């Protein structure tokens, strides 16, 4: 990604004296509603957010579903806004839990007719947008007892007359829109957040004293990764019957041994701009390697990662030696990937040859001596395809 690419956009929010009090963080594509993985990665990982926002409060919009994937940011003052149209009374318990955890919540275009006063207690901020209602409607709405005690922000102010009217009517309010300041794009080079997280996780896992809490802190650096790891605990694979709300609990259910495998899968599945077929091909190879390894060397570990990481250059657009240099992997895995040596290297060579239909490169006689016939090898391959399909749905 070029240095001049837009990561996200920053809109200034001012008080009645036109002093900057906060920044509204926007998806760079104004046509996109809500957030996506690349936006959240840019927001929390790819830039120094404190520097970009000049230590001001930041506002951004998301959904209640995505809120569960966002780790609490203790180093910045952040308010998360949810649309009134997407909320129901059934969401009260979830919202209350987020509030107890320390999240600051705001509601967009609130309608006091839809909710009781207690529902509004979980919200500290209210956002009114002038594309949905007039300035008069806003001024009237904030007189309601459930809304009058909240922090009020009015967005999409398009002309100076609207701004002056709101300044006089809502002296403690906050304001933004084209009449005040234009949106400023925040540019830079997006780093692959998962690669850095993967390195840190591998280092931590090599330290046997690392706790699930310590490992969770690495995962929680990326909201989308956190969400997908939590989501994994509710699959058939793990059959969790508990409401998992944080990365630490998810790790305890998944198990530290499987953690790197799943973090790596999430990393591969989140690289933008790649053909849709690439991810299932990589996972199929990983599963085939794992199945063949289990048949040949039941106690051997690392085959899944060898198969998966053999696709690293295709995803990250760097040569394999450069990529592996940064990853603190077991030497057996590195040797297998770079030199096709050792038991893991032999397994990778067989799998790659089988995928390509290069039968002359497959040591069938050696496999037969290990009780693996051509039919058995075919079954291991097909089983890998089935497993990869299941993993792709996580």
Would you mind describing this structure in some detail?
The chain contains 19 helices and nine strands. The model has no long low-confidence stretch (mean pLDDT 83). The chain starts with 5 loop residues before the first strand and ends with a helix. Helix 7 packs antiparallel against helix 11, helix 12 crosses helix 19 and helix 16 runs parallel beside helix 17. It has a nine-stranded mixed sheet with strand order 8-7-6-5-4-3-2-1-9. Helices cover 47% and strands 12% of the residues.
Q: Please compute the radius of gyration using only Cα atoms.
A: 26 Å
Structure classification? alpha/beta
State the major sheet.
9 strands, mixed
**According to CATH, what is the class of the largest domain?**
Mainly Alpha
CATH architecture tag of the largest domain: Orthogonal Bundle
Classify the helix fraction into a percent range. 40-55%
Query: CATH-wise, what's the superfamily of the largest domain?
Result: Hypothetical protein af1432
CATH topology of the largest domain: Hypothetical protein af1432
Beta-strand proportion: 5-15%
Low-confidence stretches: none
Number of strands: 9
Distance between the termini: 27 Å
Mean pLDDT: 83
Any idea what the shape is? elongated
Protein name: EAL and modified HD-GYP domain-containing signal transduction protein
Pfam families: HDOD
Domain HDOD: 191-375
InterPro entries: HDOD, RNase_Y/CdgJ
């Amino acid at each position: 990604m070029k240095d001049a690419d837009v990561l996200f956009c920053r809109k200034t929010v001012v008080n009645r004296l036109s002093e900057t009090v906060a920044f509204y963080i926007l998806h760079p594509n104004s046509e996109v509603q809500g957030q996506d993985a690349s936006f959240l990665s840019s927001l929390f990982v790819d830039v120094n957010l404190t520097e970009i926002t000049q230590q001001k409060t930041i506002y951004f919009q998301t959904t209640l579903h995505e809120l569960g994937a966002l780790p609490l940011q203790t180093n910045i003052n952040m308010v998360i806004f949810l649309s009134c149209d997407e909320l129901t009374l059934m969401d009260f318990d979830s919202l209350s839990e987020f509030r107890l955890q320390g999240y600051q919540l705001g509601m967009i275009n609130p309608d006091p007719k839809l909710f009781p006063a207690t529902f509004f207690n979980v919200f500290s901020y209210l956002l009114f947008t002038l594309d949905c209602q007039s300035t008069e409607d806003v001024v009237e709405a904030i007189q309601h007892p459930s809304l009058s005690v909240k922090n009020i922000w009015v967005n999409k102010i398009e002309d100076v007359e609207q701004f002056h009217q709101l300044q006089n009517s809502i002296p403690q309010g906050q304001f933004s829109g084209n009449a005040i300041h234009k949106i400023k794009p925040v540019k830079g080079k997006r780093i692959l957040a998962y690669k850095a997280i993967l390195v840190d996780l591998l280092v931590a896992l090599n330290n046997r004293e690392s706790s699930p809490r310590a490992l969770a802190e690495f995962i929680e650096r990326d909201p989308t990764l956190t969400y997908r790891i939590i989501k994994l605990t509710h699959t058939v694979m793990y059959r969790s019957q508990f409401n998992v709300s944080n990365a630490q609990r998810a790790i305890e259910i998944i198990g530290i041994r499987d953690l790197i495998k799943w973090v790596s899968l999430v990393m591969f599945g989140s690289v933008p701009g790649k053909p849709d077929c690439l991810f299932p091909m990589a996972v199929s190879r990983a599963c085939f390697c794992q199945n063949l390894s289990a048949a040949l060397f039941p106690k051997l570990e690392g085959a899944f990662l060898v198969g998966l990481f053999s696709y690293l250059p295709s995803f990250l657009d760097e040569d394999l030696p450069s990529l592996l240099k940064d990853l603190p992997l077991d030497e057996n895995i590195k040797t297998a990937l770079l030199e096709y040596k050792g038991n893991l290297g032999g397994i990778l060579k067989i799998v790659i040859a089988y995928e390509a239909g290069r039968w002359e490169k497959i040591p069938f006689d050696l496999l037969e001596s290990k009780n693996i016939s051509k039919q058995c090898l075919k079954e291991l391959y097909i089983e890998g395809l089935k497993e990869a399909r299941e993993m792709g749905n996580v």
